[in-house]
Design goal:
Layout lengths: L5 H27 L2 H8 L3 H7 L3 H14 L13 H13 L19 H7 L4 H22 L10 H20 L6 H10 L18 E7 L6 E2 L4 E2 L6 E7 L6 H7 L5 E7 L6 H19 L8 E5 L4 H5 L10 E7 L2 E7 L3 H7 L35
Parallel strand pairs: 4-5, 5-6
Antiparallel strand pairs: 1-8, 2-3, 4-7, 7-8
Helix pairs in contact: 1-2, 1-4, 4-11, 5-8, 5-9, 5-11, 7-8, 7-11, 8-9, 10-13
Length: 388
């Protein structure tokens, strides 16, 4: 075997560190795990560990993200064909991953039980985690809407997804804090009964008056993976590509609601460089999408793609060499070129609703398209109707 290049050697060492960290966390738990112990298991120096990861928590998040993304396919089950059936199937898939009361205190089944305490311990992690959960709710809500009978179309079901995810996250916490307390059947039933609630939640156009700029720029994105479908993401397709920092993820729903039927919408998630936030994002989305792919028929999967851009290569291809947690830029792609660009709050809605680069309205905001948009209601904060 030939000598490894520097890049190959770094990748090899990184893989050794991750394998060692997985063993250390499974055996000792996150709190009792030691960097020195990980280095010893990997047969590397402490400095070699820190040259790949900034600290133990970054390692922990990366290990969990890798496990979530590579989780074996669960026992096949019939996907739900109605919102009730699909939400019940998703709850069963979610609960099946939780450790049983008979599981050992340590081990892979309980490896993720210390995730939430770590998020709670650092206020810098809470805003991005809240937005990641918003993104999960958007993905689940859009899937529920696609299973809804045509005669019931109209209102958004993201609120229902938020309630279901709150229930399931609570069940996860109780499985760690009070094993055996909750009956899984009751959790599944509670999620199914959410579909019986009658709530008309209608969203209208964003109030942000963001200008769209017609441009003619090359679009040569790198290869990427769609985290929703766990398959290559065809970023060259016509549609809207939204570059979003982890504090702006909920803005992607504005693009989905404003775009015409069938338009490709891609959310490209970027960070300001923290090696803790990128794996936390991968983990949070993988946890939801693994269950969603099992519980919903492919025809109901949301038409929103999610791409993680840890290297910043996709953002750079879109003309953004520098990104941060507050980034919100959206570009319209047509025939392999970027033809329209919008930056700042409201960029997602503007890029999706502008009819074309050449017919943008005088204020640069576009006239809007019917698409999947929900008719206007009473004015409220961030596009929601006022009142209950």
């Amino acid at each position: 075997m030939g000598r490894l290049s520097r890049a190959q050697s770094q990748e090899h060492n990184r893989a050794r560190v991750l394998a060692a960290a997985r063993e250390e966390f499974a055996e000792r738990g996150f709190r009792d795990a030691k960097i020195d112990g990980i280095a010893e298991r990997a047969e590397l120096t402490r400095g070699a560990v820190y040259s790949n990861f900034s600290g133990k928590r970054a390692l922990y998040f990366t290990v969990l993200a890798g496990l979530a993304e590579r989780a074996p396919e669960p026992t096949p089950q019939e996907p739900g064909l109605t919102p009730r059936e699909a939400l019940g199937a998703l709850a069963r898939a979610w609960l099946a991953r939780l450790p049983l009361t008979t599981d050992e205190h340590r081990g892979l089944a309980r490896l993720g039980m210390e995730l939430m305490p770590e998020i709670l311990s650092d206020e810098r992690l809470r805003p991005p985690f809240a937005q990641l959960m918003k993104l999960d709710a958007i993905l689940l809500g859009l899937a529920l809407e696609r299973l809804r009978p045509a005669e019931q179309a109209g209102g958004r079901l993201v609120w229902m997804a938020e309630a279901a995810l709150t229930t399931l996250q609570g069940a996860s916490l109780m499985a760690a804090a009070a094993p055996g307390f909750t009956e899984p059947f009751d959790i599944v039933s509670a999620c199914e009964h959410l579909t019986e609630l009658d709530r008309d939640d209608r969203r209208f156009s964003t109030p942000w008056n963001t200008r769209a700029r017609p441009v003619d720029e090359p679009w040569s994105p790198p290869g990427a993976t769609d985290a929703v479908r766990a398959e290559p993401a065809p970023l060259g397709d016509d549609g809207v590509v939204a570059i979003l920092g982890l504090h702006r993820l909920e803005a992607v729903e504005e693009a989905v609601r404003a775009a015409p039927p069938g338009a490709a919408i891609t959310a490209v998630l970027v960070t300001g460089g923290s090696d803790e936030l990128a794996p936390l994002a991968r983990l949070t989305v993988a946890d939801l999408c693994g269950c969603l792919r099992q519980a919903f028929p492919r025809s109901a999967w949301p038409r929103l793609r999610v791409v993680f851009d840890e290297s910043g290569a996709v953002a750079a291809a879109a003309g953004l060499p520098v990104v941060g947690e507050g980034t919100e830029t959206a570009v319209r792609v047509e025939s392999g070129r970027i033809v329209l660009r919008a930056d700042g709050r409201g960029a997602c809605h503007t890029a999706a609703s502008a009819p074309s680069a050449g017919t943008t309205g005088g204020d640069g905001t576009g006239t809007g398209l019917a698409g999947d948009s929900i008719p206007p209601g009473r004015a409220g904060r961030r596009g929601r109707p006022a009142g209950p």
